[in-house]
Write a structure and sequence with these properties.
The chain is built from 12 helices and 7 strands. It is α+β, with helices and mostly antiparallel strands and about 400 residues long.
């Protein structure tokens, strides 16, 4: 186990791991789940403890360090990097719960693993000592590898969302993740039918999202007060960064070595349109990386503000994350359109990178129109609504 938060140690591990993720990507996609060897290696290294507070048995890495590791993992497989990063992030989220809940989560001495579908599509009816929870949630990334489940339900008393944690055997999994991209995340739906959840195993969504959670007092000096929406948008965008970088490396090598079938055997690298397309892709990837680096640094500047993090700062991070995904998609699309038909063979990584990033782009957080409306509204001083930052 890499019992250290040393950045170089973890980036070296991620670089090594990326090669293995790439070699397993096609099989993981067919399995529609994280490859078992990948899961075993991540657990052995202690990856799922990387972000959690030291006082919870984690390594207390900064978000800047965590995002860099994700980016490098995604150089191998964006889908696998997505699952690994969210299982680690969700363990961090469970550290926000009351002490009694954390005693259960950490009872076996391991980092608790759980999916955490965020949309409040269930109901939590107040009863003596807790809630009876029912509902159906999409999409439960990590459900295939978890012992716990975290869902967001509407509190019948307050009308506000409340996170409810329960064991994996208390939910039903619907095998519905049949997707053109990000297939190996296995982000199936979960169904909960009238499950009793004690008070201490719940947390109001506002405390989860913006600080002031019970876990902050249990783990002082940690990153638990960082605004959830801001870190979530960047964690989810980062696999798209790694995918575009890997696509650019593959495309550049292909253009260097490819010969035109109908061009008298001329090298593709000698064709002017190849220069133009590669130049376009370089511009998009470089812009993407600059926006990502700036946002990664911004999280560490504004994150410690917790509940008092200004809305403009959160909106700026949301805009940056959406722009990162947009630029990644554009770059890979340019490359895929000019790499030749054989680039669409399932053995070539470019076609998978294209499909994976297209699915990431479809996430509500990266809806470009909605994100730009939010950015413009905030810039002009208009108030935001409850769902604007989601």
């Amino acid at each position: 186990m890499l019992r250290t938060r040393d950045g170089q140690t973890w980036t070296d591990w991620a670089d090594s791991m990326a090669g293995r993720l790439a070699s397993r990507a096609a099989e993981a996609e067919r399995m529609r789940a994280l490859h078992p060897e990948t899961m075993a290696e991540a657990e052995a290294a202690g990856f799922f403890a990387l972000l959690a507070p030291v006082t919870a048995g984690g390594m207390g890495a900064s978000f800047a360090e965590f995002l860099e590791v994700i980016r490098r993992l995604a150089n191998g497989c964006a889908s696998s990097a997505w699952v690994l990063s969210f299982l680690s992030l969700h363990a961090w989220m469970l550290c926000k719960f009351p002490a009694q809940a954390q005693a259960r989560f950490f009872a076996d001495g391991k980092m608790p693993l759980a999916p955490a579908p965020l949309a409040p599509t269930g109901r939590a009816e107040r009863v003596d000592g807790g809630f009876r929870v029912s509902g159906r949630w999409e999409w439960a990334t990590g459900i295939n590898h978890s012992d716990w489940v975290l869902v967001n339900a509407i509190d019948s008393e307050t009308g506000e969302p409340r996170y409810c944690a329960m064991t994996r055997d208390e939910v039903e999994v619907e095998d519905v993740w049949l997707m053109s991209g990000m297939a190996s995340t296995g982000s199936n739906a979960v169904v909960v039918s009238d499950v009793f959840v004690p008070d201490y195993m719940t947390l109001p969504a506002r405390e989860m999202a913006a600080g002031a959670s019970p876990g902050e007092a249990l783990h002082p000096g940690s990153t638990l007060n960082y605004p959830l929406r801001a870190v979530l948008t960047m964690v989810a965008a980062t696999p798209a960064v790694g995918a575009a970088e890997a696509a650019l490396a593959w495309y550049t090598e292909r253009m260097m070595n490819k010969q035109q079938a109908f061009g008298g055997g001329a090298r593709q690298a000698e064709i002017q349109t190849t220069h133009m397309r590669l130049g376009e892709a370089l511009a998009e990837v470089r812009a993407m990386r600059l926006v990502w680096e700036d946002a990664r640094a911004a999280i560490e500047r504004v994150g410690p503000g917790g509940a008092s993090t200004p809305i403009p700062a959160q909106a700026a991070l949301r805009l940056a994350a959406a722009q990162v995904v947009r630029l990644s998609n554009r770059a890979i699309d340019i490359m895929a359109a000019s790499a030749g038909a054989s680039a669409s063979q399932l053995s070539n990584p470019l076609q998978r990178q294209l499909r994976d990033v297209q699915v990431i782009r479809g996430h509500v957080m990266y809806d470009w129109d909605r994100t730009c409306v939010l950015a413009g509204k905030v810039e002009l001083g208009f108030p935001t609504g409850p769902a604007d930052l989601i």
